[in-house]
């Protein structure tokens, strides 16, 4: 019962502070376990101009146990699974404390977008991209933000170029397309091998890709 | 002792057995004295010498009972020179905690902070004094802040429980008259929320801090909030973490519901054991004997490798075996395993063409009219056919023996539970003293240990070259131990106190005999391993 009271209070606090640009609402009137939160992408990052929706499940033992949070919006970020939206953040696990609120947790997520921790990754593929080529990573993350998290358009676009989506060099894909391989397969193999671009004279890598493609 | 490999041919006569016992007894007696003297020497010499100086396993046990000490020495069996030894203590978590408190008291002058805070510091550094001292000398203030013993701001608020006429708790958002708790940081929350919070944290064994900052709660704070001795639970969890982290020095007794911890002093000697094909056995104060290396129960005569390979094979094979046992039956005539994969119950063995009924395993011709509804009662298991054909059959055979003795040992264990009552009956009805009645629990221990040795002798037999002479001697020794164990087991079935007292000498003799047979078998098994006749492989 204290949980209901606290949740109502938290919701009110969010409403009273519109400047934080954080939003919090119940999914349905009858279920106080399940909420959706949202916040804006931090300025000066590839996530700027995006609105990110987070699915929140409040356990019975709240606030003594942390809420379960995951991104509904697809995000390209080392600490967030690009597939499931699962979040790797200590305050949502062992560093949780009852004084943390849903609002402060959402703000922490916002901060996480601002400063990724590629050395403690949730999504290894993305983290690798981040470490190897920050500029290319930023481009991809920004594309994901425009594609999946536009503030004004609710429905995400689906006709995005696969190569762009994973930050893979177009020329590299073209090279294999011209050899008669399918695009989807090529992208899949390049993602698996973690190769985003390649020096045209690097025969060893080219052979490795070919080998995978022919499997 | 070496001559025990060969079997006394005339032992099965009752009278001879007695004489045998006498000689074993006197041998052990002298050994025992020798051991006592030696062990004193071992302890002192161990301080500054390496493992080579040791003569054999020496037992440094916290028990005061010298009789137990003697018993343990005879258990170790191999009183040979040149074998590695293990120095260990058996401790309870309470004792470990007390030891730590003692050491903390010794350390206190260096730190010059309250003992309560010392506990927090050591908790923070996983009870590693070296690491703590190192960091402490480097930057004292940093250690204090990191451990939650200092606030950045020094408010004048006293920590503790207060009563507020009107308080709004930020955790539960309830307001009204409330008891609250806060540390010097003035982050104040209602007592109910604090209770809930601490309850969740106790099993983690980590420092519990203020909900809003890193300031640590002392054990006395926890006890004040939770009542009673709740911080003890936190300390227990903390110690558990410590033991887990230092598992090469400390091991929990693996027996069910046993909470003793074995602490080994000279772990460097552990690596010496495999060379001699013996295992570093330790015995906790509940008399549980286990291997400090692999954590299994006593698995002599097999060494750790035999035990490891055997257990892994058993796990891998048990699925197969279970399937075979569950889905197949042996042809009643020729013993071939048959799987029924459909169809009617009229079976014809492909091997010997015998026709039989799947349900009752009887001859099909005798069935008369009730072909498809066999109502005849299923006969007792006929799986006693033990000729070993093929490796699975051989394995199945040994595995069955292994598990049979395992089951018997379990039953004996239950028997041991009733022994307490028998001892009491002896004291009340026959009027003998407690110390005099100890032959009963000792006999049951001898029985269980004998069975365990017997059980683990089957893996050794399984992996040994059957054509070798020594293997044959080993099997003969097994047989002798089986007889000795069964004899003792029968004796322990006696219920009337008077009869038990009459047979007191018998109990002694038979228990001693089991022990000497056990030692002989263990030595023989070790010989098999040392000479490469027993080679465990998957």
UniProtKB/TrEMBL annotation, chain A:
Residues 2-150 form the UBC core domain. It holds the Pfam family UBA_3. Keywords: ATP-binding, Nucleotide-binding, Transferase, Ubl conjugation pathway. It is an enzyme of class 2 (transferase). The keyword ATP-binding applies. Pathway: Protein modification. It comes from the Eukaryota. The active site is at 88 (glycyl thioester intermediate). InterPro entries: Ub_conjugating_enzyme, UBA-like_sf, UBA_C_fun, UBC, UBQ-conjugating_AS, UBQ-conjugating_enzyme/RWD. The keyword ATP-binding applies. GO terms for molecular function: ATP binding; ubiquitin conjugating enzyme activity. Its EC number is 2.3.2.23. Belongs to the ubiquitin-conjugating enzyme family. This is Ubiquitin-conjugating enzyme E2 1. It comes from Lachancea fermentati. The lineage of its organism: Eukaryota, Fungi, Dikarya, Ascomycota, Saccharomycotina.
From TrEMBL, chain B:
Keywords: Metal-binding, Repeat, Transferase, Ubl conjugation pathway, Zinc, Zinc-finger. It is an enzyme of class 2 (transferase). GO terms for biological process: protein ubiquitination. Residues 165-378, 169-214 form the RING-type domain. It comes from the Eukaryota. The keyword Kinase does not apply. It catalyses: [E2 ubiquitin-conjugating enzyme]-S-ubiquitinyl-L-cysteine + [acceptor protein]-L-lysine = [E2 ubiquitin-conjugating enzyme]-L-cysteine + [acceptor protein]-N(6)-ubiquitinyl-L-lysine. It comes from Lachancea fermentati. The keyword Membrane does not apply. This is RBR-type E3 ubiquitin transferase.
